[in-house]
């Protein structure tokens, strides 16, 4: 099986113009789901999904019969990771805890998408509480490999062509990594740009809402709806790109490093100025701070649920809670402060060395074999800890498995990252087989 993602931006334009009807689109996407999801396992079952979607698409058409007044995501079906609360659905968060104990008011992100004309395609599978215990989801590029996690179903659904847009979340690497593994575009904005209201928390100091699309233009269209204060920019010059080296890059595999080198060469060939920079000489300390922060806040956010339903938690989740309980108050305060220091350091260093964007592997390498492990988020960790915006775009392959190029901007540079990201993605799109 091969992935078959649908770019969001041209699809949204055709829906708004009336060249494609929302009812016909949801019918086609339900056909696609019926054809492939028994193998991929991206979406949670929903009896009557097709009838519901056709009803909603018909009603949407009736409300917006004038193409000139149609909202930006008119008729776009969206897959929603099952840690987001959605009116009309229970939230299980990939767990065995009773959904009635978890479900709450609809998330702000989902409401914003609905208000922009999107329709909910359904709930996408996730690891338990966005941590471990992988779901049955498989990588559409090679069913013998993981799609990544914890936003497993969201990434796989977009990559397999079941929906053109999906919501995910990232506390370490749960948007950028699965997007890299599945060969699509993942976008995690600056911390706080998309509200976390109505999302089951993991570690609120580093939790982010993110998106999956097949195209950077589609990520920009979704970001304009989801992000607070979005103001599109049109940069007047190409960015200077910094290739991150040093101890941080040493955490990647040979294939991961080769993918970045291939991407850097493609950018240089396309006329970009490419520089070599070392950003995280203290990566071990950064990793330790993030791990302590995530474990401590996971223990705090799950204290009540775990007290009532601890026997229903996966052993790995319980172990993380126990680890988090050992983190002292002062250590947690220091870890929270360290993420803000790191954010400043990244911005200052980028200015000092004169780079606009930083590139690195979207994951240590291609997707690991099997679905019992969603892969290592280590290449995403420092950027998530700092809360800076990150984008991954397809850049080369190892066999049938994609590699992703992680592109990062300083905090608050979301609009510039996506504006530049379209050309960056085009420049590396033809990177072929990477020598692993």
TrEMBL record:
Region of interest (Disordered), ranges: 131-151
Amidase domain mapped to chain residues: 25-418
GO molecular function terms attached to this record: catalytic activity
Family annotation (Gene3D superfamilies): Amidase signature (AS) domain
InterPro entries according to UniProt: Amidase, Amidase_dom, AS_sf
Name the record gives this protein: Amidase
Organism from which the protein derives: Haloplanus rubicundus
